[in-house]
Amino acid sequence: MRVDEFDFELPQELIAQKPLAVRSASRLLVVHKSTGSLEDKQFTDVLHYLRPADVLVINDSRVLPARLFGRNKRRAGLVEVLLLRPYENGKWEVLVRPGKKARPGAEIEFSPLLSCEVLEITASGGRLVQFHFAGDFEAILKELGETPLPPYIREKLEDPERYQTVYAKHAGSVAAPTAGLHFTPELLDEIRGLGVAVVPLTLHVGLGTFRPVQVENVEDHRMHEEFFQLTPESADVINARRQAGGRIVAVGTTSVRVLETLADRDGTIQPGSGWTDIFIYPGYEFKAVDALITNFHLPKSSLLMLVSAFAGRETIRRAYEHAVAQRYRFFSFGDSMLLL
User: Fold this and answer.
1) What is the radius of gyration, based on Cα positions, of the chain?
2) Where is the domain boundary, 144, 171, 201?
3) 320, 296 in Cβ contact below 8 A?
4) What residues make up the domain containing 109?
5) How many independent structural domains does the chain possess?
6) Which pLDDT tens digit goes with each residue over 165-185?
7) Strands 226-230 and 78-86, sheet pairing
8) pTM summary value
């Protein structure tokens, strides 16, 4: 299967640069997997497609203020460091620009309270660094860091909280689980009022999620790892709802990846935590997820392959063509799809 099969033409003006004034004011393209039929709705219409027995599974990861600016102690000029993945004892995998100022042995100072030493260059061209700090690392990061935005968003975000879901809790992502950005506390209350259970899990989103797949053949792609956690309490609710005839409705591809990582062959969800590199593309047989709320994804991305696996390649192709023709807004701050 060729990666080119997941390419599509997208006018630049359809890439949303700012969030809407009201989170839930976005549009919703409803895609019926069994028939391939499409419906143009508003996001709040999701209430009409949920059933009382269902469980809505959300990703409560919070985006870190992961972009830092410092100076190489031995060379002049600004250095930008983007946190990617934590290791033990203050070590992190990071991206550094410009890379020539971050060779092994380089020391980068961000403030009197925070600096790092470059230990090695990673296989992907990033850096493994050792942070040195006085006090609480997360508190220092909150003070010095900036919230990273995807490169296709060129306008400055006035309120960084708009790149967080309203239920974001556990810090660790470097990109938002964007399917959840459409929910408001009021809409979630209405969903619970229907009888739907709303259950959290955590998957810390890495930058690799949004990058185009670089190989020619889909089967040759290797996914990066991302940390996840699903508590026994959440697993119990999900399994009870499913056994009672309810559907598992995943909010975002990140939730899908955790659920499918932890699902037994019969669809039972086991609690757990760890790192997942699950790669879902057409041909994959879903074990647990029955419906999916998701945004519109980048061409040639693993996320587009996942939704194509879920709803069918031809159905997704037609849905994206329809979305372009109807001027839907794309990517992180864009509109939404409901696949069921």
Assistant:
1) 20
2) 144
3) yes
4) 67-144
5) 2
6) 999 999 999 999 999 999 999
7) unpaired
8) 0.94
